[in-house]
Specification:
Five copies of one chain form a homopentamer. Chain A is mostly beta strands. Chain A has strands spanning 2-11, 24-30, 36-45, 54-59, 76-81, 84-87, 90-94. In chain A, a hairpin with a 2-residue loop joins β6 (84-87) and β7 (90-94).
Chain lengths: 98, 98, 98, 98, 98
């Protein structure tokens, strides 16, 4: 999985029937110092994530292992909202202190 | 998924029988500011996308989760046409205002 | 899928029994202007492609969706020979005009 | 598989039900000279790895081939702790000599 | 598949039970001119490859299509030892002439 921040969303009406009603999130990938990278992914939301949330997303066939995305043409899913992130003995991110 | 623009198409008669009648689109990948990247993918069209359309494509085994691509030797599928794209509180793209 | 040119072949006698009799092609990846990139892939031939052909190859589990590669330890397959390639309203490549 | 060092961990309460109770490790990828790269992955721990351990992780559908990760939305798993690493006739890493 | 040279091996006792008795090889990836790249992969040996051998490896779910790696948390497998490699009409590599 990679860490990303939700920075936007997409609307698409002309789409494969397997993706009706799925929320499509624009996720900017973060590096291991929690800085934004010049990389993004469009992922289906499986956990009710919102704008500004720091999240984890899974890709490939693993992105289809949630109830919402099973057998869908979806190769990326937001499957967790990060609460806290500790690294090298210090705190990189704490959701509730933002 | 990634965002791309349809910039062309390919014709191939000598191909695996699993891909008869599939439309092969040349898709130029766009970055998160909707600028073209020096990267492309050839994807099967599953939604009737046309030249100039901004689309979403899925890769890997997820590209085989549409009726059209199930069990086919296809690793990329256009599965949505983007209508609108909002980011950081502003509108990056609106199909009908183009 | 990506576009590539067949530039060579490999012979391997000490190999997994799932790959007996498969032709192994050296494919140089091309960019979206039909220029060779500094990138290659070794792919199993599923369509009778030959040296100099411009082809499409599929990767990952999708590379196992041909009769020849089903259940084989093969992560790339040549599944089409390109006849013509149109882009931005002009012709990038035409097999029979070469 | 790639080699990585465990440098941190994440906590997420709002997550897909398939990932309850899984330990999420921040793994910094190492190159073939055992130097840290500017690349990381968040992986589920399947072997009881701890901070500072040099480990192997597997990605994609292969990350779901452990008892702990089967059918879960998980695309990376730590599946081995490295004891020793020999290369070009010399020892690159020995766990117990650290 | 990609071409690589076997440059080392790893030992890991604390690992997922699916990988008991598997030989873990350090493979340095080669480019299409048979020069080493700054890239490696740790792969399970399925063909009895040894140090210095030029090999092919497959990744992803295709790495689990050998008897040895079926259903294992393994995302890379050495599935062939290269005997000879011809390109653009000349010989790039010949095992027995080394």
């Amino acid at each position: 999985m990679q860490i990303a921040k939700i920075i936007g969303s997409l609307v698409a009406t002309q789409k494969d029937e397997g993706l009706r009603d799925h929320k499509l999130l624009v996720c900017q990938v973060h590096n291991h110092e929690n800085k934004p990278k010049d990389q993004y992914v469009i992922a289906v939301d499986a956990v009710g994530a919102g704008p500004g949330d720091l999240v984890l997303y899974a890709t490939g066939s693993s992105a289809r292992q949630t109830n919402l995305t099973k057998d869908r043409p979806c190769d990326a899913v937001v499957m967790a909202v990060v609460d806290s992130w500790d690294q090298d003995g210090s705190n990189v991110y704490e959701k509730w202190s933002e």
